[in-house]
Amino acid sequence: MSLFCGIDPGLSGAVGFITEAGEFVDVYDMPTLPTTTGRRQVDAAELADLLREHSPAFTMVERVGARPGEGPTGAFSFGHTFGSITAVLAALGLAHDLVQPAVWKRRAGIPPGAGKGASVAVCKRLLPKAADHLARVKDDGRAEALLLALHGRTNR
Q: Which end of the chain is more exposed for a tag (fewer CB within 10 A), N or C?
């Protein structure tokens, strides 16, 4: 059975998996570890283990960039996270692509300017078996990872 993966980058992002038929498999918060400065960073080894375990046929990653009003430290950290994710995918030889947030959100039916709650609502509607994994306020990253997996499945 082929699996599709979606990755919502960021330390509060997530990694989601669906089947070829578009059924929910699992979703995980982005694996992180603390640094010596007290900040967190992506745990690339744990992310690699997770991807090896599920061995997706294709992975869709949200293409991210600097955010308006973000300071240099935050921008560097976000870039480091994105780079770590794409490096793990490349090192594992996993087929993947990047997609702009506006593109996948439009195709998922999320209106422009909608809050993170819209991603959760749409994901629960499209993948009702994932609802138990989307119960916390901070689970928007999980919802977006699963919606990215759906986008990768249908637009690969």
A: N
